[in-house]
Amino acid sequence: MSLKRFLSSTFMIGVAAAATLFEGVFVAVILILTLGGLYEFFTMVKKKDIPIYSYFGIFIGMLIPISIYTRFELTKNWELLFIVLAFLSILLLQFARRDNRNAIVGISTTMFGVFYVSWLLSFLIKIRFLIPGVEGVKLLAFILLVTKCGDIGALLIGTRIGRHPLFPRISPKKSVEGAMGSFVFSMGAAIACKNFLPASLNLPSWQVVFMGAFFGGIGQLGDLSESLIKRDCLAKDSGRILPGMGGILDVIDSLLFSGPAFYLYISAVLKTI
């Protein structure tokens, strides 16, 4: 691991720890990650000459985590209504344009960026406040550690003994050995953090190991998905804000998939208790 990557990783670990423990820091970090992730996504897409609505996309994208945190709801299905209103607003912006070439691509890509970055990342807020008090904090810490330990395992094992490419057309540097290392590290993190899960769940160790493998695997899909986007946009990294690591999307890509999956699973299990 390079010195730059080590320093950036240490900084992000400190930020993640502070955000997990302190609500104000958590909200600020989520908003910064959302803003930075949207900016990086739209910047990459612009290189493909797609007529996107980046400023409007960032604006509506920032409203999503704010509305979820403040529990702002105009209707019972506020999120669906919000998406419909955002779509109609982008259509009105398109009507004002003189050039209608690639209009469908531009509108779809803008909406996808909001969904991919803002909506998926906002599930971390839902996890944090799914259970009041320290139990919600523990849930957030659990999925963060399981997911990011998987990323660390993929990096360490892949760079040392990685020989067989996983998906060379998507990410040439990812290996089968790295993927296996990611599973092992995620499962280990899940067992180590078993006490972070609510005692009411009363999960046996084998099920916690399975959770680590499952959510770690979902995180790997998130990583590969972001690699696919970068490859399509001919970008090595989503940005350069973190020396040695790349951009914000490079850091949160795995959480964009594991977070929603974990929230839906825990919510479903808690309802059965």
Strand order of the largest sheet: 1-2
Helical percent range? over 70%
Mean pLDDT value: 89
Rg? 19 Å
Write a structural description:
The chain starts with a helix and ends with a helix. The chain has eleven helices and two strands. It is globular and about 60 Å long. The chain has one domain (3-272). By secondary structure, the chain is mainly α. Helix 7 (134-161) packs antiparallel against helix 8 (176-192) and helix 7 (134-161) crosses helix 9. 73% of the residues lie in helices and 3% in strands.
Task: Fill in the keyword field for this structure.
273 residues; mainly alpha; two-stranded antiparallel ribbon; 11 helices; globular
Provide the fold topology.
Elements: H1 3-21, H2 23-46, H3 54-70, H4 78-95, H5 103-121, H6 123-128, H7 134-161, E1 165-167, E2 171-175, H8 176-192, H9 205-232, H10 248-252, H11 255-272
Antiparallel strand pairs: 1-2
